[in-house]
Amino acid sequence: MSLLVVGTVAFDAIETPFGKTDKIVGGAASYIALAASYFVKDIHLVSVIGDDFPQSFLNTLTASGVNLEGLQIKKGEKSFFWSGKYHNDLNSRDTLETQLNVLETFNPVVPESAKEVDFLMLGNLAPAVQLSVINQMRKRPKLIAMDTMNFWMDIAMPELLKVVALVDVLTINDSEARQLSGEYSLVKAAQKIFKMGPKILVIKKGEHGALLFHKTEVFFAPALPLEEVFDPTGAGDTFAGGFIGHIAKSEDISFSNMKRAIIYGSAMASFTVEKFGTERLVGLSQTGLDERVQDFIDLVQFDIQLA
Ligand code: AMP
Fold first, then answer.
1. How far is the CA of 304 from the centre of ligand 1 (A)?
2. Atom of ligand 1 nearest to the CA of 240
C-alpha cells in the first residue's frame, strides 16, 4: 500500500539533562518517514528544505525507500530550524526558537506519482500546507491522519480547524487536546474533538503512553519503561510513522487494528528516544523490532479470573 508523508524536514538543536546538540537533522516528516519505512515500501515525501541540508540524510531516506520527488530544495535558502530544551522529567520541554525559513513561503506540490496514494499522513506543519496537500489529492485516501502542535493552535487556529474537519485520525498530546477542546477531562476533550471532524483521536502522553479514542471506546498503550531515555524529540512523529505504517501495511482501518497500530507506534518511538535525533531509527533489524513489540505484549498481558 502506498503512503504519502507531509511534514518538516529540519534542523534541530536539542538540550536534555544528558547533553546538548548543535544543529542535527530532525523534522516531523523525517521521523515519520523513517519509522513508516519499516512497514511500507511505497512511501512518498512532500516537504521543503534549503540548500544547507546534508545530502547524506537524503541518501538515508532514499535508501529506506522514501521517494523524494515531492521534496523541494530551495537554492540560497535555509531549512526550517527548531530548538528546544527538555525539563528534568523529559516529559515537557520549552521551545527556545522556531525559524520557519523555507517554510514561510512553502507551496507544496504533490507529485503525480503520489496523488492517488492509499494513506496520507499529515505531519506537524503549517495547517495551510496540510490543507493544500489534501486538496491536491486526485482521490481521497482510504485514511487521512494528521498530527499538529500547540504552535499552530496559537498562531493559526482557524486554518487548523479547517484541516481537522477533513481528517479521519488526529494525533496530539494531552495538553494540546486540552487547548483544542477547552476541556480538562481527556474523555470530554475527545468527544468535543470528534464534533470537529476526526473519527479517531490519539492522545499522546509521553512516558505515560497513548490513548486511542473512538466513539465511546477508549484503548490505552503504555510507553515502554526504558532504562535510559536520552532524547524524546521526534517520539510523537515516530509514533505516528509506526501507527500509519502498520495500518498501511495491513490495509485495515478498523478500530481493533488501530489498537495494534498504536502498539507498533509506541514500539517505534521507544527506539527514537534512546539516542539524539533520528540516529536510532536507521538500520533497525526485523528481529529487534519484533522483540520490542514482544516487550509491549509482556508489559501489559495478565490473567485475571473474575469470580
Ligand atoms: P515531536 O518531538 O514528535 O513533537 O517532534 C519534534 C520535531 O518536530 C522536531 O524534529 C522539529 O523539527 C519539529 N517541529 C518543531 N516545531 C515544529 C513546528 N512548529 N512545525 C513543524 N515541525 C516542528
1. 41
2. 3
Q: d(Cα 58, Cα 67) in Å, to the nearest integer?
A: 10
CATH superfamily of 2-300: Ribokinase (3.40.1190.20)
- What's the confidence (pLDDT) of residue 230? 86
pLDDT over 90 at 270, yes or no: yes
Of 125, 83, 119, 81, the residue nearest 107 (C-alpha): 125
**Protein residue whose Cα sits closest to atom 5 of ligand 1:** 234
Which residues contact ligand 1 via a Cβ below 6 A?
8, 10, 12, 26-28, 82, 98, 124-125, 149, 151, 233-237
**Main-chain phi, psi angles of 112, to 5 degrees:** -50, -40
CA angle 139-193-90, nearest 5°?
105
Closest residue by Cα to atom 6, ligand 1, is 234
pLDDT tens-digit readout, 32-52: 999 999 999 999 999 999 999
- Closest ligand 1 atom to residue 12 Cα is 12
| C-beta neighbour count of 216 within 10 angstroms | 9
Cα of 27 vs centre of ligand 1, distance in Å, is 5
Cα(110)–Cα(107) distance, rounded to whole angstroms?
10
Angle at which helix 174-181 crosses helix 150-164, to 10 degrees, equals 60
Reported pTM:
0.96
Q: How confident is the model at residue 89 (pLDDT cuts 50, 70, 90)?
A: confident
Q: For residue 42, report the distance from its CA to the centre of ligand 1, in Å.
A: 24
Q: How many beta carbons lie within 10 A of that of residue 132, not counting itself?
A: 18
- Amino acid identity of residue 119, one-letter, is F
Over the stretch 109-150, which tens digit does the pLDDT of each residue have?
Answer: 999 999 999 999 999 999 999 999 999 999 999 999 999 999
